[in-house]
Amino acid sequence: MEVINFKKFNIDEQFEISISVASELFSAGKIFIYPTDTIYGIGGNPFSESSVERIHNIKGRNIAKPFIWLISSVDILLKYAEINYESHLNFLKNIYPAPVTVVLNLNSRTKEITGLNSAAFRIPDNHFCNKLLTEVGMPLISTSVNRSGKNALNDFKQIEKEFSEDVDALFYTKIKNIPLASTIIDLKREKPSLIREGTIKFVELLDKFN
């Protein structure tokens, strides 16, 4: 069993150190909890089998159920996903960063590496996330901090109490944020379809395709 040397960092006071440590943890196949533009997320390298397995085990979640991947830019997205319609590309450039998650088909190389056919992507509107994502230059797993069937936690003190023995680090902020739900849309086909409506209404997003 892996021995966890849990660490925590206040990103308000230790921003640069937090980015450096989170980047090192990501590269080493470790997992950590961090704030996003919606709620706190459990993160790690989606191409690390051990990271993916650990997060699934922590959450008690079906291994076949994929995670959201956070990315820093549409250019990074194009390295992993297929975008076959110019309207989709323009849409993504117009809306991001935002609490909107899009499900896309993966390109052949990414399918081969991950064994997945599609993935859900989001460019977050969060300074810490964007700085970290730019630093690692790759997608970052983002999944809510909870056990399967339980409510997501968004208070760093409660998160530390319940998950400090499961993850390698907690990056937290004392700035209160309002928990948001991202709107999830399917962009695997030409016509977008709604999977889950969140803070931004689907009808508002459809206007961006015009």
Quick structural overview:
With 210 residues, the chain is an alpha/beta fold. Strands 1-8-2-3-7-4-6-5-9-10 form a ten-stranded mixed sheet, sandwiched between helices.
The main β sheet shows up as:
10 strands, mixed
The best one-word shape is globular
The main sheet orders its strands as 1-8-2-3-7-4-6-5-9-10
Give the name of the CATH architecture of the largest domain.
Alpha-Beta Complex
Mean pLDDT rating: 93
Folded structure, characterized:
The chain has 210 residues and is an alpha/beta fold. The protein has two domains: 123 residues, DHBP synthase, CATH 3.90.870.30; 81 residues, DHBP synthase, CATH 3.90.870. It contains eight helices and ten strands. It has a ten-stranded mixed sheet, sandwiched between helices. α1 packs across α6. The protein is globular. The relative contact order is 0.23. The model has no long low-confidence stretch (mean pLDDT 93).
